[in-house]
Description:
Blueprint: E1 2-3, H1 6-11, H2 17-34, E2 39-42, H3 47-52, E3 65-69, H4 75-86, E4 96-97, E5 103-104, E6 106-110, E7 115-120, H5 131-136
Parallel strand pairs: 1-2
Antiparallel strand pairs: 2-3, 3-7, 4-5, 6-7
Amino acid sequence: MKFKHKKDKELFLSLHLALIMIYSDMANYAKVKHGIDIVITDTVSTKEDDERLKRVSDSHQLKIALDWRTFNIKNEIVLDIVGYINNKPEYKEYRYLSNSGVYRLAYWHNNGNGQHCHLAIHKSYGIVDNIERIASSH
Length: 138
């Protein structure tokens, strides 16, 4: 596994285990089929991080999302990896409903912070680990 930032390497194991499992499958597929290593660029964030990055969901705060770099990978390879993980029936229960009405795990986009792929699981698997977040969610 490769990480852009030391912080994300340290926080990786705090992500939901299902997300780690799905990521591992996807990374293995990328390595075996395409000979590439996926570089994780973002894992857990704070509300302030999300506001600064103009994110539309709190999935990184809930430890159910990570981002990986795509700018150095050919488009057809990114599309193959995204298609592989989104269409795997074993992970159907983990798919989230996107703002555009599509159930998926991986989404390749540029939200103004550069081309990357967002990998996430359904919000019902979110990890709330502090009293402030619990109190604010009620």
